[in-house]
Amino acid sequence: MKKTLFLFILFSSSIIFSQNKGKEYTIRTVAFYNLENLFDTINDVTKNDEASPMMELKENRSKVYWDKIDKLSSVILQIGKDKSNTSPAILGVCEVENRAVLEDLVNSDKLKSKRYGIVHYESPDKRGIDVALLYQQRYFKPTYHESFNPNIYRDNRKVYTRDQLLVSGYLDDELIHVIVNHWPSRSGGEMKSRPLREKAAYQNTKIIAQIKQKEENPKILVLGDFNDDPINSSFKKVLKTKAKKKDVEDGDLYNPFETLFKKGYNTGGYRDNISMFDQILITSALLNKEEKDFSSYKMFNPAVFNKSFMTNKKGRYKGYPFRSFSFGTYTGGYSDHYPVYMYLIKEK
Question: Which of these ranges, 192-201, 210-219, 311-320, has the smallest mean pLDDT?
Fold first, then answer.
């Protein structure tokens, strides 16, 4: 199934570029990556970072930390490179402890030449897990950013979960808006925790409405680890996402990862169940239904970045992402999530 879909994507690509033979395109990659507990080795007394796998290690924390930085940077360097000839212009991330670990990441040997900027806020999450946006400064120029607390309650008690990050700015000469998410987990079961993610989705609708107050038909990317699959109620009932291009009307959210999910693609797994928790949604302004007009940035080739070296080759979790930590030990892997990405392309 994966091979068939990959061939279909290649065929679709060849159609688009053959129809526009002789034309040149600007290609930028937008991606999202759950970095799986990118925590430093220093105990922060203001948060429960002791519960992180990094702090649970009994020895070699520093060595593990820098190895993880190197492995994550090696993945980021490759995402979308085959068409854009560089790493992502815009990269949303989650499961980071603080700005310091992000600075170590972007200043690593593999990434420092990309000159990534950082937008980050400390979130209210009890463990100190944050979201952030990384961007190549040569391509993207932020003009505004804001952190939104989703203000989620359960049984009249506040749920201290991750914030939602809005970053607006110019990708080359086009204004776009990016909302980075890491919604509440499925702790306690999918059904019991479902209302928490529905409330997180509702917060996204409020952020989108805020953008639309100032801009009639904005180009918005909603990306993150949603802890929900594309077919769950948070997407279909709250965000009202559309899976088929023909059904998308002005102002709608299009979710190309719903089709990939139904074809068997995944970004992770748990207890023998695959999941597509990591996704990128776009507003109608970034969707090209006819696949002919690329006079401004439009979405092209959404995909899961699931290279062989990032995947377990044997054992109980064969075929799942090769994670960094398991049962209190460092495995030497990358992350328990695959990144997702898409290209934004336009005619030069």
Answer: 311-320
